[in-house]
Amino acid sequence: MADKVKTTAVEESQRVKELTQQAIKSEAYLYPFKGIIYFISHRSLWKPLFSKLAPTLSLGLVVTIFMFIFAYLPQAAVLAFTSGPLAAVSAALLTLSESSTIVNMLSRAFLIEEALIDTFDGALLARGCTNLVADGRQLKPGSDPIGRLGRLLKKPFARFTPKALIRYLLYLPLNFIPVVGTILFVILQGKRNGPTAHARYFQLKEYNKTQRDEHVERNRAAYTSFGVAAFLLEMVPVVSLAFSFTNTVGAALWAADIETQRTTAPSLREQAKKAE
Question: Which of 2, 93, 130, 140 is 20 to 30 Å from 178 at the Cα level?
Answer without folding.
Answer: 2
